[in-house]
Amino acid sequence: MSDNRVALVTGASRGIGAAIAERFAAEGWDLTISSRGLEALQEKAGRLGELGAGRVEVIPADMTDPDAVEALAVGHAEAFGRCDALVINAGMGQKGPIADLPVRRFDRLYQVNVRAPYILLQSLLPALRSTAEAAGAAKVIAIASITGVYPEPELSAYGATKAALISLCETFNLEESGNGVSATTIAPGYVDTDMSEWTKGLIPADEMISVGDVATIAHSVTQLSRYAVLPNVILTRPGSNLHRA
Ligand SMILES: NC(=O)c1ccc[n+]([C@@H]2O[C@H](COP(=O)([O-])OP(=O)(O)OC[C@H]3O[C@@H](n4cnc5c(N)ncnc54)[C@H](OP(=O)(O)O)[C@@H]3O)[C@@H](O)[C@H]2O)c1
C-alpha cells in the first residue's frame, strides 16, 4: 500500500471535479482522475503535477458503461492499493417537465448519476475498508444537488437521481461507517461551471456558488476522523434563493 494519501476523482477534467482534484494535489496527494475525454484528462494531470500532486493516473471511463466504471475502480485499486477519498463527482443534467421529458433521458441520467456511483462504491469497498483499517478513516464524497433535497420545477428527473444518490450514501453509512468508511453527499445550488451555462442569462456566473466553495467542503471532509460522519451538506445561494437551485 502506498504511503501517500490517495484519491479517485471522477469528472476531474473540469468544473467541480477539477477543483477538488487541484485542492488535493496542492497537498501532495496521489490521484486517479477520470472522465470521458482523454486529452483533457492528460492536460489536467500535467497541471495537477505542477500543483504538487504525487503520482497521477489517468483512466478514462464513460459513466454510462458499467464495464468501464468497474474497470476504473479495478485500475485505481491495482495502481495504488489504497483509497483515502473516493470522489463521485461525474454527473449529468437534463431539464424538462415531467409532461415532456422522454423516459430514455431519465434512464441515461440514472445510469450516470446513480448506477455508476453504486458500481464505484461496491468495487472500491475493499480498498476503502483496508485504507480505513491502516490509516484510520476513508471517505466517500459524492456530489449530489440541492434539487435532490428541495424539488425544482423542470428538474424532476435530475433531482430524483440526486435524491437517490443521497439515499444510497445514507445506507452506505449505516452499513460501512462502523468500519471507518463513511460517505458525505454535497448538495449545492447552481455552481459556476459548464453545466450551469444554460442559466447564466438569469443568474450571473459570479453570483453562483464557486467550484472553490465546493472543493473547500470536500477537502474538509477528508480532515474528519472515522468517528465523525457528515451525511449531507446543503450549499445554497443567499437571499431569496435559499433552498432554490
Ligand atoms: N454546476 C452546477 O450548477 C451543479 C450544481 C449541483 C450539483 N452539480 C453536480 O456536480 C457534479 C459536477 O458537475 P460540474 O458542474 O462540475 O459539471 P461539468 O463542468 O459539466 O463537468 C462534468 C465533468 O464530468 C465529466 N463527465 C460528464 N459526463 C460524463 C460521463 N457520462 N462519464 C464520465 N464522465 C463524465 C466531464 O468530462 P467529459 O465530458 O470529458 O466526460 C467533466 O469532467 C455533477 O454531478 C453535477 O450534477 C452541479
Automatic annotation (TrEMBL):
Family annotation (InterPro entries): NAD(P)-bd_dom_sf (IPR036291), SDR_fam (IPR002347)
Designated name of the protein: 2-(R)-hydroxypropyl-CoM dehydrogenase
Alphabetical UniProt keywords: Oxidoreductase
Keyword Cell inner membrane appears in the UniProt entry: no
Domain of life where this protein originates: Bacteria
GO cellular component: membrane
Enzyme class (EC, first level): oxidoreductase
GO MF annotation terms: 2-(R)-hydroxypropyl-CoM dehydrogenase activity
Pfam family, one: adh_short
EC number: 1.1.1.268
Stated family: Belongs to the short-chain dehydrogenases/reductases (SDR) family.
